[in-house]
Write a structure and sequence with these properties.
CATH superfamily of the largest domain in chain A: Carbon-nitrogen hydrolase
Radius of gyration of chain A: 27 Å
Shape of chain A: elongated
Largest sheet of chain A: 7 strands, mixed
Helix content of chain A: 25-40%
Number of helices of chain A: 19
Oligomer: homodimer
Distance between the termini of chain A: 67 Å
Number of domains of chain A: 2
CATH architecture of the largest domain in chain A: 4-Layer Sandwich
Chain lengths: 572, 572
């Protein structure tokens, strides 16, 4: 069987952080399916046993211990197949690791060498960087193992693996989604394959975990960098892929760059694990699958939000969500996404008008609910508002209404939604977008009150684009909600533009400042005075964001773990 | 003047994150004072120019640029003196650095070698670890420079410095406070000095920055590990210290351990910066100061909270705070601390009774306000509560009162406090303790609503101890507030013990689980069923803590940046 042909199973699974038993069951079930389909090798994502990121759970010795016991169970279940599985290893230190399981045993272990400490990652907090390689032979093929960040580096560890003659590298990942990242990964992986004339098998996690969505889209490349398979986006997928690499040596020997790059180490075979041949299940006929298509931007975002929302709600034990509808575009979008993620029957919508609410708001909210098949609960807030004003009248005597009165209204709505949440066990979804969150155009404990801020990382202009995308086939979001001028409706005739520049001017400034980390002097496409005012608003409102619910990361720089700013900060 | 005698100035200053201009002024003013007092060398804390921790401000190139310009200004101001100053260096990468300033020039730079990535620290996110040493000679003394974490390691970089014959090591720090850390630092620094027969000059930052308090307590040790000076705790201090190390070589040559440890590198002088002699100001007579005393535990905590509170309020531009008094011990303690930190005239107290509030609560709150000299505003909440219940009556028809009605009350109080905050520009202080925050015995957007959670890291048993300490000399907190049984007063005859074990049983379990990271099976001093129930409460309430205001770190493991748990977490 030394023909360099292999049947791979790429197990793109959705584990849950901390659910070691449930994750193990999922892994064993995928391993069995793969074995039954005649796969020689099945690969699972990074830290598949524990879920990713486990954060400070790693500091619990019982947690690491439980994961090690589960690894032994996974190994015992690997009869008749070879598997690569992400777990936490404990030696003289703690490592982000991959185990090579083979026919009931742990045949080898690899420790991640490059630990990311940027963006949402804190891996140096938890793990020691590994040294060394894990190389094994199977069916006459020489395979190497890497973990996530490792393969983003152009030289080591791939350079070393190539020098050892490795023909196929497996990369197990838990790579969080942001817009267009799949295309970026695909380009990079393809070049890695062709640079090293090495087949690349990339398996990514899928699922939502707090602020992060793992998008899946696992991929297999041949040794020339051609895409052989691409798994589905935003859903579990077990992909079977037949690969034949018998031409690889011929390729390498006629490639002058490859020979110069790797010659020094070529031929060394020290430390390579030779796996015995297994009696695999009867192979079904050759698997011919078309790679799943990449999604266009707006559909990608929609699916990311839907998965992130679904998994946050369900993994935290909720069935039903409740949303305060304002008649505006943000809450309409969140309601649509919730209905898509959870089913309309699990979404409750509440309209809470005040004396400042326009009839068009009620109409928009009501029409949306009709379109979604959701009954709308109406709770007017003027009575409660009156009782607050009466209570505060002595303290406020002689002072004009200002932001204080506006915020009371928003907080009454928050209190009403949480009364429903507490009474019926519904999770509250907030509806604020990234533009608002950036400049603090929102009320802490008011419209910011909720368990999950679904569109927190979507700039307002992106909210519009996504709504138009959703309405492409039929009008789900009433057109008047999209076309009306945005208003918080907290005082008579209020418009967002009373306090903020138009969103098509605001959003590019925010992107330059937040995503690109540019200073006021470097943002030259808008008047300097405006840029400075916007930046000051962003900085001043860090205290609000610190108390905001988690939101789903969509851009390259989301608020939350991804962007760590001091509250007390005099830099301007 | 090669007599190995030196006059040091230890400038324990309180910079503000991002206020590069203000910090520079503070630095220059301390430098001038030191020079006028005849100091040869003045030392400033780690990242004194930018404040610590600057967090993601480091990613702004304009921020790093401004700090480099300020460094040049500081250098220019160093005429007639030598200084060590913490700043951010930019070469081929970004470094946490110390500059050696000498008579108007930057004479050398050191890059921090050990970057902490545990607890509240994320330095690998921002900086590259340095290599190499900074050694300079002054007055015939050989001095080396280290930054904070560097000196917590027993071997390098001190080993290398000793090998070069360094006689005095300067360590510039921004070391955050936790209970009894000063004593731990002092012991370690003393042993470092005696291990290497090297005088240790340790300068720590002082001041509050969001969740952190820097306690100061800078120290100077002679080459035998004897404490020569200790600066004040929790306040700025410019210490002048005269040291004479002419006996150091004699000490070293008769110490067998020292000679064996350092022999290989001894005598190498490569890369040592020889500073010229300066015309220093007329030296006043020898400075003889007694080291400031260490504080006992409760006074230490009181001073830490006072400083953290003061700096959070003032550095964020507030004058006045507002506190909801319940008549219970937590809010009483916060009011006392606020009055100590800001002056009673800058503290507003609001009592917000409901039908469930006992007369003893009103009396306790009122008596406390009399003791503090604060007028108490009373805002009963039953009227507003009625309006909510009326509004919700159709939705809640046929259902019994439960936590929903309890939480509405807490949120009415939050809304009233924020109405006052919004109207008058007062910062709201929350009053929850660590025991409550741990098990979620608090209402999100209710009693958790505020800008700063002053005693968030104090377990309830510590709250009692601190109150008794405060009352030691005279009764500030009315005795009945301390002795009554704790109650949230959200339903008739409610007691904390209805929902929670007594605090003297609860707190040790929480400490074992949170600070010591023990699992349920390892906590054997309480019934297993109780331990499991407590742990489940802690884990389940991570979502509340994620939206809590920042609080002042007092223990070894505070909630916030110090403890990073997933919300979605199935590990039990």
């Amino acid at each position: 069987m030394n023909d360099k042909s292999i049947r791979l199973a790429v197990a793109q699974i959705n584990p849950t952080v901390g659910d070691i038993r449930g994750n193990l069951d999922l892994i064993i079930s995928n391993m069995r399916q793969a074995a039954e389909a005649g796969a020689d090798l099945v690969v699972f994502p990074e830290l598949a046993l524990t879920g990713y990121p486990p954060e400070d759970l790693v500091f619990k010795s019982s947690f690491v211990e439980d994961n090690l016991k589960a690894l032994q169970e996974a190994a015992a279940a690997s009869t008749g197949i070879t598997a690569i599985l992400g777990f936490i290893d404990r030696r003289d230190d703690i490592f982000n690791a991959a185990a090579l399981l083979h026919d009931g045993e742990v045949a080898g272990v690899y420790h991640k060498r490059f630990l990311p400490d940027y963006g949402v990652f804190d891996e140096s907090r938890y793990f020691r960087a590994g040294q060394g390689e894990l190389i094994f032979s199977l069916h006459g093929l020489k395979l190497g193992v890497t973990i996530c960040e490792d393969i983003w580096y152009p030289a080591e560890p791939l350079l070393g693996l190539a020098g050892e003659g490795v023909e196929m590298v497996v990369n197990i990942s838990a790579s969080p989604y942001h817009l267009r990242k799949a295309a970026q990964r695909e380009k990079m992986l393809s070049v890695r394959a062709s640079d090293y004339l090495m087949s690349v098998v990339y398996v990514n996690m899928v699922g939502g975990q707090d602020e992060l969505v793992f998008d899946g889209i696992s991929m297999v490349f041949d040794e020339c960098g051609n895409l052989v398979d691409r798994a589905a986006a935003f859903t579990e997928d077990l992909r079977l892929v037949d690969l034949d690499l018998k031409g690889i040596l011929h390729q390498r020997l006629r490639d002058s760059r490859w020979r110069k790059l790797h010659l020094p180490r070529l031929g060394a075979t020290d430390g390579i694990i030779h796996l015995g041949e297994l009696q695999t299940g009867a192979k079904s006929p050759e698997v011919i699958r078309n790679p799943e298509p990449l999604l266009e931007d707006m559909e990608e975002i929609r699916r990311a939000l839907r998965l992130g929302l679904h998994d946050y709600v369900r993994k935290n034990g909720f069935n039903t969500v409740v949303i305060g509808l304002s008649g505006g575009i943000d809450s309409a979008l969140v309601a649509v996404l919730a209905a898509e993620a959870l089913g309309a029957e699990n979404v409750r919508c509440v309209y809470m008008p005040s004396r400042f609410s326009a009839e068009i708001s009620r109409q928009g909210a009501a029409d949306l609910c009709v379109n979604l098949g959701i009954e709308m609960l109406t709770l007017p807030i003027d009575g409660v508002m009156e009782s607050y004003l009466t209570e505060l009248a002595p303290a406020f005597a002689g002072l004009s209404p200002n932001i204080a009165e506006e915020n009371i209204q928003a907080r009454i709505r928050g209190n009403l939604l949480y009364a429903l949440s507490n009474k019926f066990g519904w999770l509250v979804l907030t509806t604020g977008n990234k533009s608002e969150m950036s400049v603090g155009y929102s009320t802490l404990y008011g419209d910011m009150a909720g368990g999950l801020a679904v569109i927190k990382d979507l700039p307002k202009t992106m909210v519009y684009s996504l709504c138009r995308h959703i309405n492409r086939e039929r009008e789900i979001i009433p057109e008047m909600i999209i076309t009306r001028l945005p208003s918080a409706e907290l005082r008579p005739d209020q418009l967002d533009t009373d306090s903020l520049p138009p969103y098509d001017i605001l959003d590019p400034i925010l992107e330059a400042y937040i995503e690109d980390e540019l200073g006021a002097d470097e943002i030259d496409f808008a008047p300097h005075e405006l840029v400075s005012r916007v930046i000051a608003m962003v900085d001043r409102n860090e205290y609000k964001r610190r108390q905001a619910p988690p939101g789903i990361k969509i851009t390259t720089r989301a608020f939350g773990r991804d962007r760590r700013y001091p509250i007390t900060n005099h830099y301007r």
